[in-house]
Amino acid sequence: MLKRPIPSTQEMLPVIGLGTWQTFDVPAPTDRLRRTLETMHQTGGTLIDSSPMYGRSEARIGDLTTATAFADSFFYATKVWTTGREQGIRQMEESRQRMQRETIDLMQIHNLTDWQTHLRTLREWKEAKKIRYLGITHYTDSSHETLERILTTEAIDFVQFNYSILSRHAEKRLLSVAADRGVATLINRPLGEGNLFAQVRNQTLPAWASDYAIKSWGQFFLKYIVSHPAVTCVIPGTSDPDHLADNMQAGFGPLPDEATRHKMVDYLRAL
């Protein structure tokens, strides 16, 4: 799978990861979730993104990965989602316990909640090696200006935000600001929470999609995002191993150039 460097360290990260919002905190059979993680490992993905906001997701990730022989091959990302220093510390310690990790690879401030307080704590935790990277997140276009401002004034390893082929506000400034400041990017809502699939129901892929090893609409949507050079990793959510396998393929093969990216948008708009 294609990998891109985390700018602050040059550690390489596979471009397709796994989100767990509303996918791992469900009554999904444990066997299915286990096969999803096995498929991810087999196809070269590493980053798993979670949050204490996601109900049982952290605990299920911890239980399932620990039961494998390749638990240490994953890149574990979660978040702090509360207010106050002590509450934040307590919540992050609980996340370490639930995910069964001595060190969390990436701890992010969820939706910028009390971000100034938590950022000071995250820097202390990074120095103490309780976390390897620190980041900030949001999921709305209206947050992008605030994210940009933080990136230009604070030392941040990762920024996570929304971006898709039909929700391209991040292309205006945020992606370029992250690249200029040397901040890795994680992309949430890459499939428009499933709305993109509704738009292409019963529609066929363009013939030229095969030039980029695109074999499904999911890969079409994800490869558009991955083809932006400022994108580090995309985190579509799923608990289905077949969907996961399809998503992972967007990290393989040639990437669309800028002219083809425009053609992808135009094709979708014309449907």
Verbal overview:
The chain is of the alpha/beta class. The chain has a single domain (12-192, 231-254), classed as NADP-dependent oxidoreductase domain (TIM Barrel, Alpha-Beta Barrel), CATH 3.20.20. 39% of the residues lie in helices and 15% in strands. The protein contains ten helices and ten strands. The strands form two sheets. The protein has an eight-stranded parallel β-sheet with strand order 3-4-5-6-7-8-9-10. A two-stranded antiparallel ribbon has the order 1-2. Strand 3, helix 1 (30-42) and strand 4 form a beta-alpha-beta unit. Helix 2 packs parallel to helix 3 and helix 5 runs parallel beside helix 6. The protein is globular and about 55 Å long. The model has no long low-confidence stretch (mean pLDDT 96).
